[in-house]
């Protein structure tokens, strides 16, 4: 039996997939930004604006669909080709996200190998949810691994630091090949939970080497706080996570609390009520000229369990050819020098997989937490300080259970994110 795999892959000078047959290079907007979709209460083109009860019921249906697709017995992510007709509401959402970001670029990619990889994340994980089931499976293996425990704590209420990539290809190539989507996106279906942090920290797609900003550029992060109907997009090559400890103390616990005093007696409404008190995100990765290995459409045998496409609702997130205004993002310049904003150093394990590396960031925590309360956005810029070699963003080598005092950039991230990717 042959272990050979045929791979048709071509990268441009920026490490993005282009058509192996040549042609134009896609020129998309890769900047980190947020817009409001039709699901947002403040949207000028509000979904089902003439029938609020039906609108709320439809959102409840989407939350139920997310719970179904998050089941641990199903594949982790799903594929819909950009030419396909959607079979359910979530596929419709995924295709709308694709068209929103790729419209007017139809000559720059091969539609046969382009599409949307989609999945959901739910925190706290429901009883049959992927994280809730799989965390028990690995508990025995990691019982003496403190770094793994730190990662598990982060995953229980948020998302660990990772890169979106073709995970199966990375494993087949020995852990060092990182082929990324063109654009990564997060659509928040509730206003609950940890903010998403996308950082311009990259990895070499062919060697696995870390790639901090080149040519003296600054580290920059975009922090997007959950707001129902908000849509975040950023460069698919960027490191990102959703750490709960960026939130004010106890806020997440209060957000997910379902009070008995809410007086919900109907069993169906009781379940809907519980789903509204979770951090629910709909994730779509936009792939052009390349389809990731072993990512297939949602199983046909289960498609009838999901909300069907409704002719009365031709658009769920984005209308065709309707320009969406970018949401405002405050800017914090975090220089490691006198006069810079007050920062607090936060450290998190990379990948949540027992890695010997952690990421350390000097963050304007108070400003971030203010944006969390307001469901807003914040752009953080770490200016380079010529007086010291110490950066505001660092990868730190983990030495025998304690952090090394020598903060270095490891040459390879082969050990990072070994388990299937988890995204915000």
Q: What would your notes on this structure say?
A:
The radius of gyration is 21 Å and the shape is globular. The protein has helices at residues 52-69, 89-102, 130-137, 146-157, 167-172, 251-255, 267-275, 365-374, and strands spanning 33-36, 78-81, 115-123, 159-162, 183-188, 196-199, 202-203, 210-211, 219-224, 230-235, 239-242, 279-287, 330-333, 344-349, 357-363, 377-382, 393-399, 402-403. Strands 1-10-5-12-3-2 form a six-stranded antiparallel sheet, with helices on both faces. A six-stranded mixed sheet has the order 4-11-6-9-16-13. 19% of the residues lie in helices and 22% in strands.
Fill in the keyword field for this structure.
424 residues, alpha+beta, six-stranded antiparallel beta sheet, six-stranded mixed beta sheet, 8 helices, 18 strands, disordered C terminus
């Amino acid at each position: 039996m042959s272990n050979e795999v045929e791979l048709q892959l071509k990268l441009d000078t920026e490490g993005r997939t282009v058509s192996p047959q040549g042609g134009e290079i896609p020129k998309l907007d890769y900047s980190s930004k947020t817009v409001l979709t039709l699901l947002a209460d403040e949207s000028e083109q509000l979904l089902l604006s003439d029938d609020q009860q039906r609108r709320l019921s439809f959102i409840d249906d989407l939350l139920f669909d997310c719970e179904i697709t998050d089941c641990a017995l199903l594949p982790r992510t799903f594929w819909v080709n950009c030419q396909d007709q959607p079979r359910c509401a979530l596929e419709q959402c995924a295709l709308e996200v694709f068209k929103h970001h790729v419209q007017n670029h139809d000559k720059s990619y091969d539609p046969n190998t382009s599409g949307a990889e989609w999945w959901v994340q739910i925190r706290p994980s429901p009883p049959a949810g992927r994280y809730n089931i799989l965390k028990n499976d690995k508990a025995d293996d990691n019982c003496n691994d403190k770094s793994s425990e730190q990662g598990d704590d982060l995953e229980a209420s948020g998302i660990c630091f990772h890169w979106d990539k073709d995970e199966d290809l990375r494993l087949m190539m020995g852990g060092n090949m990182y082929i990324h989507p063109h654009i990564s996106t997060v659509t928040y279906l509730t206003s609950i939970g940890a903010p998403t942090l996308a950082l311009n920290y990259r990895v070499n797609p062919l060697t696995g080497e870390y790639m901090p900003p080149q040519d003296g550029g600054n580290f920059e992060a975009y922090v997007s706080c959950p707001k129902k109907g908000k849509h975040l997009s950023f460069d698919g090559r960027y490191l990102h996570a959703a750490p709960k400890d960026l939130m004010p103390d106890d806020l997440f616990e209060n957000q997910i609390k379902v009070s008995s005093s809410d007086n919900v007696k109907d069993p169906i409404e009781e379940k809907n009520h519980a789903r509204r008190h979770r951090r629910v995100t709909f994730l779509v990765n936009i792939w052009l000229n390349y389809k990731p290995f072993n990512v297939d459409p949602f199983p046909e045998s289960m498609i009838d369990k999901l909300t069907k496409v409704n002719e009365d609702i031709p658009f769920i997130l984005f209308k065709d050819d309707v320009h969406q205004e970018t949401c405002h993002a405050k800017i914090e310049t975090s220089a490691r020098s006198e006069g810079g904003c007050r920062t607090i150093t936060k450290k998190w394990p990379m990948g949540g997989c027992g890695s010997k590396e952690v990421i350390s960031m000097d963050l304007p925590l108070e400003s971030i937490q203010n944006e969390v309360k307001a469901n807003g956005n914040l752009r953080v810029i770490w200016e380079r300080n010529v007086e010291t070699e110490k950066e505001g963003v660092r990868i730190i080598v983990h030495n025998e259970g304690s952090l090394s005092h020598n903060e270095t950039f490891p040459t390879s991230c082969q050990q990072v994110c070994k388990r299937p990717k988890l995204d915000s």
